[in-house]
Amino acid sequence: MDSSAGTLARPLRGIIPPMVTPLLDRDTLDVAGLERLIEHILAGGVHGLFILGTTGETPSLSHRLRHELIERVCAQVGGRAPVLVGITDTSFVESVELSRKAAQAGAQALVLAPPYYFPAGQPELLEYLGHLLPELPLPLFLYNTPNRPKPAFEPQTVRAAADMPGIAGLKDSSTNMIYFHHVQLILEDRPEFTLLMGPEQLLADSVLLGAHGGVCGGANLLPRLYVDLYEAARAKDLARVEPLHRMVMRVCSTIYSVGQYESSFLKGLKCALSCLGICNDFVAEPFHRFREPQRQIICRYMEELGITRHC
């Protein structure tokens, strides 16, 4: 990214962590923790920041807090890396408002998943995008999250959307490599269209086979690990890829595995950041932070992983 010109690289390459949202309570940012987290992530050499995504707990946050987060993140990053802002909402008007806030604050791009709750058909999603794009002041990345209660962007929908002015790329969190390869194939004539992998377990595989980078939650905790893996995979240095990929898998099988609910990945990630002394581990309702027994397990896993902690 040319930060001085405020433009977005096409395609956008590298590791763009989906940043957690540090909270003190259900509607108060942990401002000091947010500042430490941003510097921690940027120090790892990442290629951008994605705020207000799934890892950022966006559906649980008030619009007031989302606006405050956008302002604070963009001001602190100050052009050192592109900032991508999630604008997914059930309300068309609120998505537009978030996009305008992002542009005013200095973000470089927007990210949109299909609106949740009402199941939209693929023609309806394309019409929705056709209405939304003229209202957006920044380039838009599609966000495919079919494992959440919302429809998927099917491959042919992505292909049709790629021809719409303003669509810059796709973040795929489907965990379906057949889907990902299909999208790659039908977009071979669009080399500027960014394809980013969501699940970090598939980062190495996807980059080795042509993906442009990853949106990896673990890069909140260990940004350099994910940057190193991306760079090794892009260089097709399999001797380096193998141990780095194993380390990523160890993070996923430990930090994300404590507890019995789907929220465990988020609770584990926030707990680990708290153990590092970076930010508070409050999790937005309906979830709650780990209790002391689970926190001690996270601390033990961090020791096994060689991560210095303060808990």
Can you describe what's shown?
This protein is an alpha/beta fold. It has a single domain, classed as Aldolase class I (TIM Barrel, Alpha-Beta Barrel). 42% of the residues lie in helices and 11% in strands. The chain has an eight-stranded parallel β-sheet. Strands 2-3 form a two-stranded antiparallel ribbon. Helix 5 links the parallel strand 7 and strand 8. Helix 2 runs parallel beside helix 3 and helix 10 crosses helix 11. The longest helix has 17 residues. The N terminus is likely disordered.
SS field, number of helical segments? 11
The level 1 CATH classification is: Alpha Beta
The description of the largest β-sheet is: 8 strands, parallel
Q: Into how many domains do the coordinates divide?
A: 1
Oligomerization category of the chains in this entry = single chain
Termini separation (Å)?
37 Å
CATH topology: TIM Barrel
Task: Give helix % range.
Answer: 40-55%
**Unreliable runs:** 1-5
H/E element order: EEEHEHEHEHEHEHEHEHHHH
- The rough form would be described as globular
| Structural class label | alpha/beta
Strand order of the largest sheet: 1-10-9-8-7-6-5-4
Query: Could you report the average pLDDT, rounded to the nearest whole number?
Result: 95
Radius of gyration: 18 Å
Number of strands: 10
* Strand residue content: 5-15%
The CATH superfamily name is Aldolase class I
- What is the CATH architecture descriptor? Alpha-Beta Barrel
